[in-house]
Amino acid sequence: MRLVWTIAGAELRLMLRSRLALVGVVTLLLLSAIAAVTSAVQMAETAQARAQAQIETDEQFKAQPNRHPHRMVHYGTYALRPVGPLAAFDPGVDSFTGTVVFLEGHRQNSATFGAARESSDLLRFGQLTPAFVLQTLAPLLLIFLGFAGVARERERGSLRALAAHGASARSILGGKAMALGVVALLALAPALVALGWAAVRQPHEGGIALVIALAYAGYLAAWVLGIVAVSGIARTSQGALIALIAAWALIVVLVPRAAAGIAGVADPLPSRVDTELAIAADLRRIGDSHNANDPHFAAFKTKLLKQYGVTRTEDLPFNYRGALAQEGERITSQLFKDYAARADVIRQRQSGWLGWAGVLSPALSVRDASMVGAATDLTTHTAFMNAAEAYRFDLVQRLNGLQATAVSGTDDAARSKDPLADQRTRISADFWKTMPEFEFNAPSASARMTAMVPSLLLLGLWIALAFGVLGWAARRLERHGA
Questions:
Q1: For labelling alongside 222, which of 34, 45, 370, 399 has CA 20 to 30 A away?
Q2: 3 state DSSP class of 103
């Protein structure tokens, strides 16, 4: 063990004497620190802006004057997705999925205001966040600092000298890995500070912040072990560098991009236009509440008349138009729910493709674990959209219920021709204040931790593989004479 420390110290001193190594480490630390600070500031401002916007939109809804309830159905309101608990570390899909949904009757709108919705997919590669720095840039720095660690000793003929001093192949590789691990810890430090700061501000997130930190430590450890192993196997420093750069391009760039493309082709998601056309066709088939002769709603009317023992809708103990609106909203909302569920299944299958691609790329595994832990993953976005739809349906049905119970059917039928009847159909603005406000809470830390397990297991396999390759490199080095 003493020789391991000695070799590690010598390697670190060599790095310190190298201006290129110092510039690389300092540059990465600066980038990581800048990413941590700017991301934290941006997310704090975003969280405050969204919370304030939600308060204001709720107040605007409640401040509406006396109106017909159905006008409030179309006036609508907004649901804003809160910022994830650890989004400052890893914003995940937030910039691409949209964060604001307009909620109104008869429609299920998509989330809007995704920062990069109209941008090229290549922009995803360039987001400067602590997670991006660790996933993409830190391995590259480790490669440039560690590719020649063992290969350089072979080229200089110093491996035999080390062996003559009692250094085994395992000691040599262990010392080189330890030195490179120190650099990895330095690269990890600003991100750890960012995670620690988030955990201090939200103590209930401390446990999952620690798990995320360990996941990235394991990811960088796999790179450290792999880099030293390749340096020990390669005949020359140049060969080691070429092999490692190719591995980085494959693991960090090509496999994630190819996996996303293959998932989209293998399990394509219908476009929003196609979905809306399909829903419109289904609505025409199931029933149109605006068509008095529609079979479904004619049967609905007959059922109500029979149930209450009357022959005219005017004799019902409630406003038939409100009941009709409730039934129409029930049908359309069920269609929305069905189509959304189908789309969610497709998205989950696509995510499954990416999850399995983690077998080929630890970058995908650590990215998935990071987004899940930060509550900025696709599952959290889907949960928000489902919560927004459930709230929309409840709000619209409450308003339709007010039309059925608080508005006279006679006045409702005459309001387009009789100004006085129109005035009587406008109910008190106090009713708007009784409507519930939209709330959404991210999945609990325990639920997110459970969801991280598959990605963490894949990452663990990569670490085990890296140890295995390092052991093989040590045996090969022993056979050829260290």
A1: 34
A2: strand
Please answer whether residues 39 and 91 qualify as being in contact, where contact means their C-beta atoms are separated by less than 8 angstroms: yes
**Length of the chain in residues, anyone?**
482
Q: What is the dihedral of CA 128, 93, 354, 449, to 10 degrees?
A: 100
Is 0.90 surpassed by the pTM of this model? no
Which residues does the chain have with pLDDT short of 70? Answer: 1, 113-127, 288-293, 480-482
DSSP 8-52: HHHHHHHHHH-HHHHHHHHHHHHHHHHHHHHHHHHHHHHHHHHHH
Beta-bridge partner residues of 78: 102
**157 and 150 Cβ atoms separated by less than 8 Å:** no
Whole-number Cα distances in Å, 194 to 44, 131, 345: 13, 10, 34
- Beta-carbon count within 10 A of 462 CB: 25
3-state secondary structure of 142: helix
**Residue (of 88, 79, 85) closest to 111 by Cα position:** 79
Give yes or no for a contact between 381 and 97, defined as CB atoms under 8 angstroms apart.
yes
C-alpha 424/C-alpha 374 separation (Å) is 51
DSSP assigned state of 111: P
Of 176, 84, 74, 189, nearest in space to 130 by CA? 189
Q: What are the residue boundaries of the structural domains of the chain, listed by start?
A: 2-479
Residue with tokens 């880099």: 227
d(CA 164, CA 377): 53
CA angle 118, 119, 124 (to 5 degrees): 130
Closest by alpha carbon to 61, among 1, 117, 9, 103?
A: 103
Mark residue 234 as left, alpha or beta (left: phi above 0; alpha: psi -120 to 50; beta: remaining): beta
Q: Which SS3 state, helix, strand or coil, does residue 201 take?
A: helix
Q: How is residue 174 written in tokens?
A: 């262990």
Helix (H) or strand (E) holding 102, with range, is strand 100-104
Q: What is the pLDDT of residues 183-222, one digit of tens each?
A: 999 989 988 888 888 878 888 888 999 999 999 999 999 9
List the one residue out of 87, 365, 112, 385 whose CA is nearest residue 209: 87
